[in-house]
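Researcher: Please translate sequence to structure tokens.
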Amino acid sequence: MTTTAFAPETEARLAHARQVADAVLFEGYVLYPYRASAAKNRLRWQFGVLVPPAWGAECEEHEFQHTECLMEPKAGASLAVEVRFLHAQRRTVQQALLDGGFETVPELPLEDRVLVPWDEGVEERVEVLAPVERLTGDGVWTLPPA
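Model: Translation complete:
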């Protein structure tokens, strides 16, 4: 279980939003039966894909996310933000060699199934709790790199 920097009352309010976020975040990945060999899982997630800047120009994908929030804060208020995303990790398949080493293969037939490489999504979470006074200067605030 992930520990959080948020107060229990903030956690309770975010719990409802997480239910909707889970449906979007895991659509087509966890909510349906997952098999690496299934045709639907051979394409990576299409909603909200972000890629490294050098790669984004070549593949016409986005390299950044821009979010705007409208709020009417009370004096002394704080803004609690939780950003969650799936970080793609490439899983490879290797075959044991007679000399004790391993060789990466495009597929590995077993008695009961065939193993194939796949991209696996690992959930990542970034939490920020900021006093609203920090956010009201020029109207732009960037999360610091993790």
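Researcher: Any highlights?
Model: Residues 55 and 137 are 33 Å apart (CA to CA).
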